[in-house]
């Protein structure tokens, strides 16, 4: 079996979450989360709306105050959100270089920003205003802004859910390419099972503020077509964990393709 | 410190990226033909005024004719009235308006930052500002004369006082109206507090602040005109008061026209600044 449920036993982690709890009023959003992210690992955090996955990401990004003993980060984090969240009053290249204001490469920040824009395929938009960009382009700029600092952990909070299906596929390819090139760990929060299976080394399913199950996906990304038997099996198992019951089995249907025999 | 911006309950949930400030300055460009047509009625009115004056329907002592006013303007520019030329008087008044406005603007932006960035600042600054803005500031003239006499000080203080409120209110609203998500994104870039103010808070509040700036300029001129007519030893107000003594309606009208042009000029300057600074909205 290439897809196994596993307990993580690694040493040098980029992120280390231990017994992490978050409570808003009476609402226990996170109830004891344990998660390790290894360097250069691509992790997908999957779950229904309100399961606490975005809260966990906000903790990892230090956007919310979180005790150090519950979340430890080694190195630099960067975030891309669901909306691009660019500063509309700064040109595209300045939006990207803003991330370098406090970095050692402060002097070459326009240069680095241009290079990163080229990596996401938007060098010709460097002088444009954010309001002149399409949704997909703006999201690429947002990725460039996160990448320009060379983070050790890139946090993506449902970054493609507002894009159309074709643009989303292009972005998947782009993210994998950037991940390989930048030697960083990626944590992507998503509610799209297929997105998680297409991108990640490890799919972590959250439910009711806890980590319900973890899958490792060993298939090369190029082989992960939605009709691959392992992907189908993983999808079915993940959906079951999430409480989505499959339709009763019809003996007249092919179990893989779903076609009538 | 950032937490107070994020948690501001009085923040208006407007996204500055799509909506402009109230009464934004952008209107469609007019065609030359339309400009010509629009200038016809004012020209006709001036012509009618001239006809009424020439035929004697409008007494020269009530209101001088446009032609007389043109001549008077020439005389005021070359010879002046009681030793002061129109240019000197205009310069004095402009300097007063800009100085008073400048003092008011600095105070307004500083107060708006204090109230906009910190919850405790809002509690300290906003209630008194909301009370004081209801005070008709021109009514303070007698008090200011008692306190400061009739020199330059009461005029400048009055202009500054009038100019503070529109700029304060709009800048405060602009700061509170900045999208929380934008601030959060900036926070995720590990910006320092001053970088946040410089790159996010101030530019984000700028569309509203510039609307406030234009209103404040208008108030500054209006306040100056009133203040100058109470007591002045130089400036346009002094010239108009001198003309009143000798029933020189032509000089009074010239003074009014200059006030009008100055107001128009400063407003256009702010509009040009708006066009440059808010180019990202196009």
What features would you describe in this structure?
Chain A is built from seven helices and ten strands. Chain A has 261 residues and is of the alpha/beta class. Chain A has two domains: 10-76 and 151-241, Rossmann fold, CATH 3.40.50; 88-148, no CATH class. Chain A has a seven-stranded mixed β-sheet with strand order 1-10-9-4-8-7-6, sandwiched between helices. Chain A has a three-stranded antiparallel β-sheet with strand order 3-2-5. In chain A, helix 3 packs across helix 4. Chain A is globular and about 65 Å long. Chain B has 282 residues and is mostly helical. Helix content of chain B is 73%, strand content 0%. Chain B has eleven helices and no strands. In chain B, helix 4 packs parallel to helix 7, helix 4 packs antiparallel against helix 9 and helix 4 (86-117) crosses helix 10. Chain B is globular. Chain B starts with a helix and ends in a 5-residue tail after the last helix. In chain B, 37% of the residues are buried. Mean pLDDT of chain B is 83; it is low at 1-25. At the A-B interface, loops of A face helix 8 and helix 9 of B.
Q: What's the arrangement of secondary structure elements?
A:
The complex is a heterodimer of chains A (261) and B (282).
Chain A: E1 4-5, E2 15-24, E3 27-37, E4 42-46, H1 53-60, E5 71-73, E6 77-80, H2 92-97, H3 109-119, H4 135-147, E7 153-157, H5 165-182, E8 185-190, H6 193-199, E9 202-207, E10 210-216, H7 229-241
Parallel strand pairs in A: 4-8, 4-9, 6-7, 7-8
Antiparallel strand pairs in A: 1-10, 2-3, 2-5, 9-10
Helix pairs in contact in A: 3-4
Chain B: H1 2-7, H2 32-54, H3 66-78, H4 86-117, H5 119-132, H6 141-148, H7 152-176, H8 180-188, H9 193-230, H10 236-245, H11 249-277
Helix pairs in contact in B: 3-11, 4-5, 4-7, 4-9, 4-10, 6-7, 7-9, 9-10, 9-11, 10-11
């Amino acid at each position: 079996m290439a897809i196994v449920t596993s307990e993580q036993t690694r040493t040098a982690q980029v992120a280390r979450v231990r017994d992490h709890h978050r409570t808003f009023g009476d609402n226990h959003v996170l109830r004891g989360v344990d998660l390790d992210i290894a360097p250069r690992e691509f992790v997908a955090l999957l779950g229904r709306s309100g399961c606490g996955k975005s809260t966990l990401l906000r903790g990892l990004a230090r956007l919310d105050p979180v005790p150090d003993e519950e979340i430890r980060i080694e190195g630099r984090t960067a975030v891309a959100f669901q909306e691009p969240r660019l500063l509309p009053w700064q040109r595209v290249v300045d939006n990207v270089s803003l991330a370098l204001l406090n970095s050692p490469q402060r002097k070459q920040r326009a240069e680095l920003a241009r290079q990163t824009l080229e990596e996401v395929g938007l060098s010709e938009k460097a002088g444009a205003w954010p309001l002149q960009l399409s949704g997909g382009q703006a999201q690429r700029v947002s990725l460039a802004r996160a990448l320009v600092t060379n983070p050790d952990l890139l946090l993506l909070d449902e970054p493609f859910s507002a894009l159309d299906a074709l643009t989303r596929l292009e972005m998947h390819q782009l993210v994998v390419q950037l991940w390989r090139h930048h030697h960083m760990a990626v944590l992507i929060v998503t509610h799209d099972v297929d997105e998680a299976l297409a991108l990640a080394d490890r799919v972590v399913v959250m439910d009711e503020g806890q980590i319900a199950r973890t899958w490792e996906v060993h298939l090369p990304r190029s082989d992960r077509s939605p009709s691959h038997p392992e992907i189908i099996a993983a999808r079915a198992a993940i959906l079951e964990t999430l409480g989505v019951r499959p339709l009763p089995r019809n003996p007249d249907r092919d179990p893989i393709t779903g076609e009538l025999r | 410190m950032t937490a107070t911006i994020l948690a501001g309950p009085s923040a208006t949930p407007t996204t500055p990226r799509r909506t402009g400030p109230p009464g934004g300055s952008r209107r469609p460009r007019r065609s030359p033909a339309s400009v010509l047509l629009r200038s016809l009625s004012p020209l006709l009115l001036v012509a009618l005024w001239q006809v009424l004056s020439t035929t004697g329907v409008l007494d020269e002592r009530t209101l001088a004719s446009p032609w007389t006013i043109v001549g008077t303007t020439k005389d005021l520019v070359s010879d002046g009235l009681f030793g002061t030329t129109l240019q000197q008087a205009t310069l004095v008044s402009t300097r007063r308006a800009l100085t008073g406005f400048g003092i008011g603007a600095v105070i307004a932006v500083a107060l708006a930052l204090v109230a906009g960035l910190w919850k405790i600042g809002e509690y300290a600054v906003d209630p008194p500002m909301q009370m004081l803005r209801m005070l008709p500031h021109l009514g303070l003239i007698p008090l200011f004369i008692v306190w400061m006499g009739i020199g330059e000080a009461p005029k400048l203080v009055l202009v500054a006082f009038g100019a503070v409120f529109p700029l304060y209110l709009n800048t405060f609203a602009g700061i509170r109206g900045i999208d929380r998500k934008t601030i959060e994104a900036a926070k995720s870039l590990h910006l320092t507090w001053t970088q946040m103010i410089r790159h996010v808070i101030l530019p984000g509040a700028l569309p509203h602040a510039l609307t406030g700036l234009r209103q404040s300029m208008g108030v500054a001129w209006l306040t100056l005109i009133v203040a100058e007519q109470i007591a002045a030893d130089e400036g346009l107000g002094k010239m108009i008061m001198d003309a009143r003594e000798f029933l020189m309606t032509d000089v009074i009208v010239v003074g009014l026209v200059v006030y009008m042009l100055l107001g128009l000029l400063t407003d256009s300057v702010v509009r040009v600044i708006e066009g440059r600074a808010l180019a990202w909205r196009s």
